[in-house]
């Protein structure tokens, strides 16, 4: 499911709920629009998910339908939909540091982390040199304000959650993530050596899917993080996607389990990492 279709379905579900509230109140869409001072087509657009209601729209809706006790819940639902798909240019308009800091509360309250990546080493497992090369490239590509050093430090500091927190980390990498060069051969060799060290931590499970694995049943998918059973984050080309609907989280959890079955662990995984280190000279 694409991000746009997921958000559309959520808006349609909210619209259906609002239609039921209106009908239970005995009002027609035209009567509600007249009482609210709206164009008569506005109710239809909201109920069919074509227009997202504002906070004031929802307050007016529940006021005239006599369901003001539902206002807060409806506003929270609508805000979650609006926050599900956030463009990078909006998140990073003041620089990369803010984008790094914005996820800290989520990371601090999560106890079970699951990550899948096909092209890079995930953030908590990155070295400072790898982080700097990665964020510098993002800064330059997106022409962002230069707060590189501050952003790097925020990401480095966040790694205390891996070393000091109570969380468990299950990480699945495609072997290709070990081979994609970020920051040059020396940076990659250091990064992969660091990965070998982290794989020995008792709270870290590291699996690598070999390039020659049979992918008939499950091929590589978009990179994603699962935070407990509460949320999934996906980094897209243009935006940052947050998934909170239980059935979608379940789909990602099921996919992660399938990918985990394809991975190798322990000595076989270390052999793949060591081979990648050797390839960088």
TrEMBL record:
Q: Known CDD domains for this protein?
A: HTH_XRE
Q: Which domain of life is it from?
A: Bacteria
- Cite a single GO MF annotation: DNA binding
Record's SUPFAM superfamilies?
lambda repressor-like DNA-binding domains
Domain HTH cro/C1-type, chain residue ranges per copy? 18-58
Q: What is this protein called?
A: Helix-turn-helix transcriptional regulator
Q: Which organism is it from?
A: Streptomyces auratus AGR0001
